[in-house]
Structure formats: C-alpha cells, structure tokens
Amino acid sequence: DQERFVREIVHDFWRNHFYRASPRFLDYAFAHGINPGSFSALLGKNLTNPYLTVIPQQDIPDCSSQEAEFQACFETLRQAWFQARDEVQSLLTTAEGLHRGRYRKDRIPGWIEAMEAFFAGDGLGCILPEVFEKFTSEGLRAATRKGCRPPSHPVFDLCEAMQAVQQALVDQFERVLLGLRLKFIETVRHELAERKRDRNTLFFDDLLLMLEGALRGPGGEHLAAVVRNRFQAALIDEFQDTDAIQYAIFERIFGRGK
To answer: SS3 breakdown of the chain: % helix, strand, coil, rounded to 5?
Structure first.
C-alpha cells in the first residue's frame, strides 16, 4: 500500500503552498472545504494512469491586486457604514415601495447586526454576509414594487461596488484553486516515482505500469509474443473493474486474435 508515500507528499504540498498563502485566500479555501483531505480525494484511482489528461490547464495567478482592491473597498464602505448606519436602517424600514415580503421590518434589525459584525472585522476574510445583497442598489431595485422608486443612499451604491469587487476576487481565487489542483496532481505523479525510487520500493501498480510501458517500448512485440506463447488464454474475472492500464496490457498481448 503506497498510501504512506502519498500522505507524505500531500502534507508537503500543503505546507509549501498554503502555509504562506494570504489570510483572505485561506479564509475562502477553508470555507469551501479545502484541506489536505480534499486534495487527497482528487487522486482516486487515477493516480498512476499515464493516459489521464487533466483539463482545463490553469496557471496559479497572482491575486495581490484584487486583494488590495477588495481591502480598499472594504475600508471605504466600513467608514461610510458606521457614519450612516441609522439612516440606512430608517430607509429600509420606512420605504413605501419595498416589497415587505422581502424586506420584513422585523428582520431588518438582524440584518443590520450581521453587517455590523462584518464591518467590525479587519476585512481579511472575503466571504460577505448572506444579507449583504439586501443592502445593494440592485437588490433594492429588484425588491421595489412597479411604479415606485427604490431607496437611495451612497452606502447602497458602495455595497453594489463591493459586491462586484468581491466577485472578481472570488473568481480569481477559484483560478488559484484550479491551478493548485493541477499542480498537486503533477507533483504527486513526479514525487511518488522519485520517493519510491529513492527507497528502492515497488508496489503492485508499479509492476503494472512497468509491464505496460515495456509492451509499448521497442521490444514490446517480442515481449507480447513470449507471454502469448506461454499462456493459451487469459480469463478476466470482474471485467468491469479492469482499469485502463490492465486493459492495455491484455489488449496488446491477447487482443489481436493470435
């Protein structure tokens, strides 16, 4: 069982790529279930499959400019919020054009508290409160009855802008995670072979890969003939569990009707 080797590589990769990552990216990653276990789960049965191609390819982008823009937007909005909090609550409570099914007056104080808690932080997280959209200009327009004007305030416009900046940052973080997943698979493939070679160790999968590689190599036809002449037939039990490597071996040796 080569799980011990894989586990070593997973934790080395995690230390190399996550220990020095930005707190904001880590906050996003942890909130979406990213951890060493989730990276291990990417491998499945395809760890040593040389036929597997992962798409799409994605480099690991630099998110520093998007993070700086998010932080600046957060600071601007936080200052405006604490100056106009009471005005905002009064507008949402008294606006006659709002659908009260969406903006129930008894819920508005709780929404205000959720925004208060968010702005009391340092902005190092990038997950917006669930109620954040309630304070955006677009959210208010969508909840305004036909023929009525939605409530208007600079804070609502700033919330709208911050939501757009946050979405751009999230999109970039998703590209980072995709790039890290691709790099992780490449790293495991390379490191696993290196560590087994350094420790003079072979596992069952390695024997299959070596045989399949030999059959594809310069002496492959001769090797296939030797095995074919030694065994009259090959019977495959539980064929649905035969993977691509095993099938390639059987096909090259016995799949040509000879």
So the answer is: 65, 0, 35
The structure tokens listed for 94 are 């008294």
- What are 202's two structure tokens? 């072979």
Mean pLDDT, the chain cut into blocks of 10 residues (258 residues total): 88 95 95 94 73 82 96 96 96 94 95 96 92 96 94 96 97 96 91 90 88 93 93 84 86 77
Give helix 64-94 / helix 154-198 axis angle, nearest 10°: 140
- As a whole number of angstroms, the distance between CA 10 and CA 192 comes to 10
Global confidence as pTM:
0.81
> How far is the C-alpha of 70 from the C-alpha of 63, rounded, in Å?
11
| φ/ψ bin of 145: left (φ > 0), alpha (ψ from -120 to 50), beta (otherwise) | beta
